[in-house]
């Protein structure tokens, strides 16, 4: 028996699915009209030329830092989490695309039919039934709800990719920051140990002078307290060194202490290049992964309006079944027992008491929230970039100033040491002058660390090396 051919109704699908509910996405809102064409806080060393979009950390010319960042990018758990989210979003996008295709299944069954006498017009009868066949269900995307969902999932996939880029950018900056702090702490620790040695010499000399009655006990106790203060500084810096080594190891995907051998080598804080290309604000906004993610989320929220509006409209589906069957087991193997059923179905919630309208209103509010979030992200990015430029420029000035102070301290110490060697100055004066030079060196290391740290923050703010 043949009830209805299955193929002809399916040929109607291309003619039915053409409408798209909801607003089309025309791109994220433009940046604020008050945005300058160049960075306001850039100094003369920050060149408004397009930067080279290569890994920014290589400009520091530190092979160990390059190795650590490469290791972290391949082993850090945060990167693995971000990449897993990208895979999830890709799978969701594939699933949304599959919604446009029919669902095809296969099945077989056997049963006994008991027909009462009222139906048969006589005595009750029973009959066996054996069936095997295929079924298909195809919901026609008549109002574009499925296509809008594909659009939304595609945008969510783009947002996940941008979030992964942002995670990589943040990781590289944090590795560099910890590495710079480690180098600075180690240099400062060496200086602190020299200062402790000198302070102990000063305390010993003062004790001798107290014994000779040339200084008071109060002065001797002051020098003793100075020794204790130096010991505390050394202990604090030793703890800092270990903290930074552990932080770097964890960022690289290793247990604390696992990279101590690699990190215990000598080295100084790397310096940034003399001139830094920063480009312009518009190009920076286009590069920043957080802004790209916000734009994609706005796109997804906009598509969600179409999904909600389509959900209020009628749902049209085509269902079909084709198979073999009969009252005997052998009927499911005979082509003479082929049967098929196919036809459209329509479902429409004529009275949902406002549920559909509420869904649309919620989607519109979600789109408005995403638009406001995008604008907030843009303003925060501009503030981040301008603030980083400002701090980098000030750090450059402070480093130059401290370098001059350091040279002055070296010159003064040389004069005092010469005077001490010819007997014109005391050993206490010579030690004090050497301590002043060491203190100036310590301040210079801190200024150098601040300069390079602000360079790293600037590269992160400008989103360098993530594309």
TrEMBL record:
SUPFAM superfamilies for the chain: Outer membrane efflux proteins (OEP)
PROSITE patterns given in the database record: PROKAR_LIPOPROTEIN
Keyword Transmembrane: yes
GO CC annotation: plasma membrane
Membrane-protein topology: Lipid-anchor
GO MF term set: efflux transmembrane transporter activity
InterPro entries: MdtP/NodT-like, OMP_efflux
Database matches in NCBIfam families: outer_NodT
Protein name per Swiss-Prot or TrEMBL: RND efflux system outer membrane lipoprotein
